[in-house]
Design goal:
two-stranded antiparallel sheet; Muramoyl-pentapeptide Carboxypeptidase, domain 2; globular
């Protein structure tokens, strides 16, 4: 009986550590909230309350450490999904926040009614903690922006993307210019592609966004797949290929200071 209870306790501890690890990887601070909730009988309710408190503290204190949250609502710039806000993945440096806001305003000025959607940015605290599965989103100076899309009648769809999270709806049918290397984050996600709605890339707005960003002196790099950049007619020293081991960039635009 004692051995059985000890075994159950070990499994319980492993389970809690697994949850803490997952929440930490996903949200940076969620593991702390789960750990704090363990002293309460109604653990899930306690976790939600503690997490909300931690979220509020992060929002208030992040500017003191050089990060700020991109807006979750409004226009012309907002996060693509509440997921990024709830998981605290929408934090960037003030300079990058201004770059994104000005780019969104520029596209909206050229094409009134345009809504620019931000994807993964960074966590509220610490430089060097990776924002998985990204390789480089660890300092608040990197941000992904969603493409713009149109319906089957070529009408622009404000604030809409093909996939629910803005990623993995690839525009290129083939990516055979990259050898099959391992390890790599260059996923095809072929099983997902038939699930996305029938929306096509809105090329004029997407090209205008990339071109504006390439002309911003604060932006150092823009990652877009070379065939896609060529078809959009955008070029420049800052518009680069991220390499064959990093994630594909024919489903979003990556910018960094």
């Amino acid at each position: 009986m004692i051995a059985r209870l000890a075994g159950a306790d070990v499994l319980r501890i492993i389970g809690h550590f697994s949850v803490i690890a997952l929440l930490t990887v996903l949200t940076q601070l969620g593991g702390i909230a789960w750990l704090a909730s363990l002293v309460f009988r109604r653990r899930l309710l306690a976790f939600l309350a503690v997490y909300a408190a931690v979220w509020g503290v992060a929002f208030a204190l992040a500017p003191l450490t050089g990060r700020e949250a991109l807006p979750c609502f409004g226009k012309p710039l907002r996060m693509q999904s509440a997921f990024y806000c709830v998981t605290m993945r929408n934090y960037v440096t003030p300079d990058l926040a201004q770059v994104a806001a000005e780019a969104a305003q520029a596209v909206d000025a050229a094409y009134p009614g345009t809504v620019t959607l931000a994807l993964d940015g960074g966590f509220p605290f610490l430089t060097g903690m990776p924002l998985l599965p990204h390789l480089s989103h660890d300092d608040g100076e990197k941000l992904d922006l969603a493409f713009y899309y149109q319906d089957t009648e070529e009408a622009y769809l404000p604030g809409r993307t093909r996939s629910p999270v803005g990623y993995w709806a690839f525009e290129l049918a083939e990516d055979d210019y990259c050898p099959r290397t391992f390890p790599t984050l260059r996923w095809k996600m072929a099983f997902l592609q038939p699930l996305w709605p029938d929306r096509s890339l809105e090329e004029e707005r997407t090209a205008a966004l990339i071109q504006h960003l390439s002309e911003d002196a604060r932006v150092a790099k823009i990652f877009v797949e070379p065939p896609l950049a060529q078809s959009l007619g955008v070029a420049g020293a800052k518009i680069r290929f991220q390499g064959c081991r990093a994630a594909r960039h024919d489903d979003h635009v990556h910018i960094q200071l």
